[in-house]
Amino acid sequence: MLQARMTDRQLAESCGVDTKTIGRWITETGRVPRARHRWAVCQALGEDEAVLWPAAAKKAIKVGPDREVVSVYPYRSGCPASLWRSLVTKAERELTFAGYTNYFLWLEQSRFGTVLRRKAARGCRVRFLLGDPDSDLTRSREQDEDVALTLSTRIRVTLAELGKIRSQPGIDARYSGGHAYLSVFRFDDDMIVTPLLTHSVGHDAPTLHLRRHQDDGMFDPFASHVEELWNRGTPVWEGEGHG
């Protein structure tokens, strides 16, 4: 609650309970709220149920490959902005944003450029994989989307924002066309994956929140996919080679 800057009263209003109930959840360690209330708290705080109520999560723990699936959302727009912020905040080693435009991040995350600069200054590798705004693939996708704010415009907004922080060591960007229909966002061992469906835009696409627990699970193939695209990608800024 402190990290989310949320008071007892604010959390109570978000979950549809009274403030005294919030107090009991905090002070009575063995008390486990109903499932719908646990989910409401997790969404409000941008935290996982396994962290807040490990006993409840343990009862439903998965043991197969799907144990790496933390959450699913029918639309990316349904994935809470607080979750994105929490994942960015917690990452210490790697932040990789492999969305074709990555435009929405600058809209939904306050002072996003400043956060990225600080992360890189502390040793976190920050990478952006973007579509080329002038490519035939981008023009083809623009015709498919047929929206007023075109892909190329959204990419150029991201490029302009990245240009403001590119002087910070540890921040890099490359062009690639290999992720035109699959966006992958990595935060250390957490990942958000969005497969783009035909005639849809990113915020309408189904979304998975993954967390790495094992070798060759759900997480690793997407991570390898992004690494391959990065190695084959073209540097956004001239004079900067692969690294």
TrEMBL record:
<feature type="domain" description="DUF5919">
    <location>
        <begin position="109"/>
        <end position="235"/>
    </location>
</feature>
<dbReference type="Pfam" id="PF19319">
    <property type="entry name" value="DUF5919"/>
</dbReference>
<dbReference type="InterPro" id="IPR010982">
    <property type="entry name" value="Lambda_DNA-bd_dom_sf"/>
</dbReference>
<dbReference type="InterPro" id="IPR001387">
    <property type="entry name" value="Cro/C1-type_HTH"/>
</dbReference>
<protein>
    <submittedName>
        <fullName>XRE family transcriptional regulator</fullName>
    </submittedName>
</protein>
<dbReference type="InterPro" id="IPR045697">
    <property type="entry name" value="DUF5919"/>
</dbReference>
